[in-house]
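hey can u run this one w/ shikimate-3-phosphate bound, need the structure tokens asap thx
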Amino acid sequence: MYHNIVLIGMMGSGKSSIGRCLSEHHPLIFTDTDTLIAQKTGSSIPDFFSQNGEVAFRKIESEICETLPNYKGYIIATGGGIVLSKPNRQTLKKSGWVVYLHASTAQILARLAHDQSRPLLNTPDKEARIQDLLTQRESLYRRTAHVVVDITASPTEIAKMIWHKYQATCQEL
Ligand code: S3P
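ok here u go:
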């Protein structure tokens, strides 16, 4: 039996909205690593990035990641870059049933075209940046996940599908 469901995937793949749907309908508490980072640092993610840079952000993100195996009964949405570190990937696998929410560059671009809250997309050519990040990360997401779910339906429908898969998986264990 897994104690948590962990959502991984790119920015804009719907981790927070799907995670919230799951927690509304099932006995799981929603949390997300970016919120935990903001609580720990006392600043927003964009402010922390601009004042301290990505390396400092990744260090705090890893510290938060190390605490995830202690959670029980949670749905945990994670920042898109959490899989970049091998120790993080190993910790995520120990923290729960890991679901990769797979979205294409076009889907992510459509969702984040006007977003100002992702420092890594603060660039004139968002599409090229998203494509680069996906190329760099796709295999890491797949390697870390217990299951891959395509983002082809509404958050509510995807949440339902994830819950059914989770129940079926837990019964097999
Ligand atoms: C990042 C994703 C963001 C946040 C930070 C870096 C990334 O989280 O952690 O801006 O490297 O992909 P979301 O995936 O929740 O947007």
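The chain has one domain: 4-172. anyway lmk if its weird
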